[in-house]
Amino acid sequence: MDKVDIIHYWAESSNQDWDAAQSLFTSGHYMHALFFSHLSTEKLLKAHWVKDNEEDFPPRVHNLDYLYNQTKLDLDTTLVQELSIITSWNIEGRYQDYRDRFYTVCTKEYAKTKMNIVNEIRSCLIGKLQ
Fold first, then answer.
1. Does residue 92 carry a pLDDT above 80?
2. CA–CA distance, 91 with 31 (Å, rounded to integer)
3. In the chain, what are the helix, strand and coil shares in percent, each to the nearest 5?
4. Region 13-41: what's the mean pLDDT?
5. Which of 14, 41, 58, 97 has the fewest beta carbons under 10 Å from its own?
6. Which of 20, 59, 51 is closest to 38 using CA atoms?
């Protein structure tokens, strides 16, 4: 696989996770929808990481701030600030004690608002991937 194929792999995988996030939201699984929103965002950032670095394989990390800072991206400050919140969904979706606490915060309205922000971030990342 060349660099273009690897970037395409990450972008396509991101789209699949975004579709899953939307399905989970529709079926009322808000916490899991946000977890998959994180995965989708992470994979787009990894596509950018591959684009902006000599290596073809991004680091095996889930921290969106870290990945963002390893790229040449220049997103709006408010969107960059959201990356920390989105990163927290990765932890909250994986570990039972965090999930129990996050579940109470994860209302339909909260998930809808945050998924709209993720959608905005995704649109920017996809647009800059071209």
1. no
2. 11
3. 80, 0, 20
4. 97
5. 97
6. 20
